[in-house]
Amino acid sequence: MSILVGYASKHGATREIAERIAEVLTLAGQHAQARPVQKAGDLGGYEGFVIGSAAYLGHWRKDATAFVMSNRDLLSRRPVWLFSTGPLGTQDTDANGVDVRAAAEPKDIPGFREAIHPRDHHVFFGALDPGKLTFAEKTLRKLPAARAIMPEGDFRDWAEIEDWARSIGQQLTQVDAGPAAAAP
Ligand SMILES: Cc1cc2nc3c(=O)[nH]c(=O)nc-3n(C[C@H](O)[C@H](O)[C@H](O)COP(=O)(O)O)c2cc1C
């Protein structure tokens, strides 16, 4: 099947995740391409979508949100998987026992669930390279409240990313086979 892995990335971490997902899907026999959402072009030829964005200040990047909402009619009729790249660190739960991924779910996701009924939304840990930050981001990061939640480092778990992509590949195989093939 022809699959678009559309992404919105400010500093590159989400782009690299999208590219890895496309590679895994290609190895699984799908025709997958990773592209920035604003360069996705005509969506009519795609039979499935993986769409991801970096999270900034609790939200997806604006171009990714606009992509989902402006294509909601088409996306609601195709299999879609969403991912967000966000929390920084290595702990699955914080000091209070709160699930870090669940807490980091961007505020846009409930609206996407309603609009396009994605098959899944997955939060991946992200990466922060101080050398890539804008002046405003560096200033924000100096605030005491930001320091603890914005450590420097690459926290992406490539095994987790590849597992998630492989599970999408398996589900696409079932979609491709259709209900007739699934019947006993
Ligand atoms: C200014 C700033 C704000 C951020 N806000 C959030 C946030 O609200 N939630 C979150 O989970 N991660 C947040 N992050 C972490 C980024 O999402 C993470 O660094 C991500 O990997 C960036 O992806 P990109 O390189 O594709 O832009 C923030 C990072 C920066 C620098």
Summarize the structure.
Helix content is 41%, strand content 21%. It has 8 helices and 8 strands.
Task: Characterise this structure.
This protein is 41% helix and 21% strand. The protein is α/β, with parallel strands linked by helices and 184 residues long. It has one domain (2-182): Rossmann fold, CATH 3.40.50. The strands form two sheets. Strands 1, 2, 3, 4, 5 and 6 form a six-stranded mixed β-sheet that branches. Helix 1 crosses helix 8 (158-182). The two termini are 23 Å apart. The protein binds flavin mononucleotide (FMN). Flavin mononucleotide is lined by residues 9-14, 54-58, 85-88, 104, 126-128, 133, 137, 140, 150.
Task: Give the helix/strand layout.
Blueprint (H helix, E strand, L loop, with lengths): L1 E7 L4 H15 L3 E6 L11 E9 L2 E2 L1 H9 L1 H4 L4 E6 L14 H4 L5 H8 L3 E5 L2 E2 L6 H7 L2 H4 L5 E2 L3 H25 L2
Parallel strand pairs: 1-2, 1-3, 3-5, 5-6
Antiparallel strand pairs: 3-4, 7-8
Helix pairs in contact: 1-8
The structure holds flavin mononucleotide (FMN).
The site of flavin mononucleotide has 23 residues, from α1, β3, β7 and α6.
Tertiary shape: globular
CATH topology: Rossmann fold
* Overall average residue pLDDT: 94
What assembly state would you assign to the polypeptide chains in this entry? single chain
**How many discrete structural domains?**
1
